[in-house]
Amino acid sequence: MTILWGALLAAGVLLVASPWLWPVRTSAERAPIVDGRIARMLQEAGYAHAPVARPVVIGVTGGVVAASVSFLATGLVAVALVAAIAGCAAPFGWLRQRARRLRTSRRALWSDVCELLIASARAGMSLPDAVSALADSGPPSLRPAFARFAGDMAASGHFDSSALRLKASLADPAADRIVETLRMARQVGGTELTAVLRALSASVRADATLRSEVEARQSWVRGAAVVGVVAPWIVLGLLALRPEGAAAYGSPAGVVVVLVGAAVSVFAYRLTLRLGRLPEPQRWFA
Fold first, then answer.
1. Nearest to 113 by CA among 157, 166, 152, 158
2. Cα(9)–Cα(1) distance, rounded to whole angstroms?
3. How many CB atoms lie within 10 A of CB 172?
4. How would you write the pLDDT of the chain (286 residues) with one tens digit per residue?
5. Which residues, in sequence order, are CB contacts of 264 under 8 Å at separation 6+?
6. Three-state secondary structure along 116-175?
7. CB of 146 within 8 A of CB of 109?
8. 3-state SS, one letter per residue, for 255-286
9. For a Cys staple, 134 with which of 43, 101, 138, 165, CB 3.0–4.6 Å?
10. Residue pair 114/130 in contact by the 8 Å Cβ criterion
11. What single DSSP character describes residue 49?
12. What value does the CA radius of gyration of the chain take, rounded to a whole number of Å?
C-alpha cells in the first residue's frame, strides 16, 4: 500500500511540473523533429515518396510480434521487453543499413554523371535537357530519379523546383553538390560549369576510391560487432528454454541481468561501429 501511495504522489508531482518540464508544442513545431528525421531516413533509403507513418506502423507491429513470440517461448517478461524494443527498432535499423548500402553502391556513379553532364553541355544542350537525358543515358540505378525529374520538367517547366525534388529523391551528399552546382549555373549563368563539374568529378572519384579501400579492410569490424552482440542472446535463449534457466532469469536478479545485458550490448555494438567507421559525408545542402 505504501508503494501505491508513493507512486500516486510521484505521478501527481510530475503532472504539476509537466508544463515546465515538457512544454506544449504545436504540430508545426513537432513535425520537423520527428517527421523530418523519419522522412529524411526514408529519402536516404530510396523511399522518398513513402508515407512517414509506414516505418512507425511496421516497427510497432514488429515489436508486438517479437514480444509475443519471445514471451511464448521463454515465459520471461524481461526477454519479451528486450525483444519488443528490438522489434520496434528493426525497421529503422534496416532503413539506415539500406541507405548505407545505397551510398556505397552509388559512390562510383557520380563521376560518370558529371562526365555525362559535361558531354551534354559541350554538345550545346540546355541544363534541363542535359539532366533529363540522364533518364536514358545515365547509370541504370539512377535513371528512375532522372526520369521523375524529366516528368516534373514536362509538367511544370520550372527547373529550380524540379531540381529540388531530384535532390530529395537522390538523397546523397555527392548528388546534393551536383544539383546545387547546376542550380547555381542556371541562376547566374557563366562558362565555368564544365570546369566545375570536372573538378567535382575528380574529387568524387578520389573519395570513392579511398573509401572503398578503407572499408574493405575494416569490414571485419562490423562482422565482429554483430557476432559479439548476437551470440550472448542466442545462449540466453537456449538457457531460458530450460525450466531452471527460466526460473533463474525470471527472478528479480535475473531481470536486472537481462536488462543490464541489453543496455551493455547496445552500447558495445554502437561503440564498436563508431570506432571502426569512417565519418560519413554530411548533406549540407539537404
1. 166
2. 12
3. 25
4. 555 455 555 556 555 555 555 555 444 444 444 567 888 788 777 787 778 888 888 989 988 898 888 888 877 888 888 888 888 888 888 888 888 888 777 887 888 888 888 888 888 888 888 888 888 888 888 888 889 898 888 888 888 888 888 888 887 888 888 888 888 887 776 667 788 888 888 888 888 787 777 777 777 777 777 787 888 888 887 888 788 777 888 888 888 888 888 888 888 888 877 776 666 666 666 6
5. none
6. HHHHHHHCCCCHHHHHHHHHHHCCHHHHHHHHHHHHHHHHHCCHHHHHHHHHHHHCCHHH
7. no
8. HHHHHHHHHHHHHHHHHHHHHCCCCCCCCCCC
9. 138
10. no
11. T
12. 25
Please report how many Cα atoms fall inside a 13 Å half-sphere around the Cα of residue 136, on the Cβ side.
6
Give the helix/strand (H/E) hosting 194: helix 193-217
Report how far apart, in Å, the C-alpha atoms of 20 and of each of 8, 31, 275 are. Answer: 20, 21, 38
Phi-psi region of 75 (alpha: psi -120 to 50; beta: other; left: phi over 0): left
Contacts of 90 (CB under 8 A, 6+ apart): 59, 62
Q: Which residue has the cell 545462449?
A: 235
CA 256, distance to chain mean position in Å, is 31
Residue 87, φ and ψ in degrees, nearest 5: -65, -40
